[in-house]
Amino acid sequence: MDLESIADELYGLPPTDFIGARTRHAAAARTAGDRDLAGKIGALRRPTLSAWASNLLVRGEPDAVVGLLRLGEGLREAHQELDRKQLRELSGQQHRLTAALARQARQLAADAGHPVSEEVQREVELTLHAVLADPQAAQEWAVGHLVKPLTPPVGFPAAAVSGTPQRAAGSPSPRSGRPAGRDDRDTAKSPDRSAKDQRREAERMKKLTQARQAAETAGQQAHQREDELRQAESERDQAERQLHEAEERATALAQEVKAAQEHQREARSALDQARHRATDAARTARTARGGAQAAHARAERLEADEK
């Protein structure tokens, strides 16, 4: 196996299993004579719980991953052009989506047999905000080999609504949804400049539309996963109730079986005693019959002698 395949395997394991598996792979590489690979394997760091949960999300929800990456790309490209209203709208979509995906990551961890805390879930959500804000973070996350949670940059609207694009010094505040820095001088632009601005605006609107569509798609997928989560939790609760009822029935039946076994032992003991008494009575009866027969014989002999 190459380093990439080994890393894929290791970062899919719970953190508690990481060190042992890494040691085995490094030892196998050394045995095969590949000391360089063994050294690289040994340098792989064990992930934190939140990094592991984030890696599970990448592996378990590929459609949501694609939607989040597209949304982040559109947001980053449109960020400098958006007005405050648009930022608030998209920021709300981002927070809903990242919160839903963080909950899904927590459920995936529980399904893998290692439940995580709300604090870990919050770290996953911060990682997802970083993915939206930073293309390098997005690329690192999408590989599925995180070793620690990512931190979103300050000022990006995914991390805070206060991340409204900054205006140049002395420029007027945006009005009526117009981007900052545009004023009445637009009327003095040349036709070529105006056409260029129109193309730029059209491209900006296209990217904004794509970002909104990506957010909507990813949000729908997240809602679907939440519905599936609620259904799974309902089925789990029902199964737990059924198990509890079955255990209660098993306990009652076990008590009944125990009582029946005790009754059986008592009946067997009574039968044994009755058999002993019957044997003793039969022996006594035989003795009595023998005595009676002997007495009868003596009486007959006496009668014969008298005659």
Automatic annotation (TrEMBL):
Feature: compositional bias, Basic and acidic residues: 180-206, 223-250, 259-280, 297-307
Top-rank taxon: Bacteria
Stretches with biased composition (Low complexity): 281-296
Annotated region (Disordered), positions in chain: 157-307
Name of the protein: Uncharacterized protein
Source organism of this protein record: Streptomyces lunaelactis
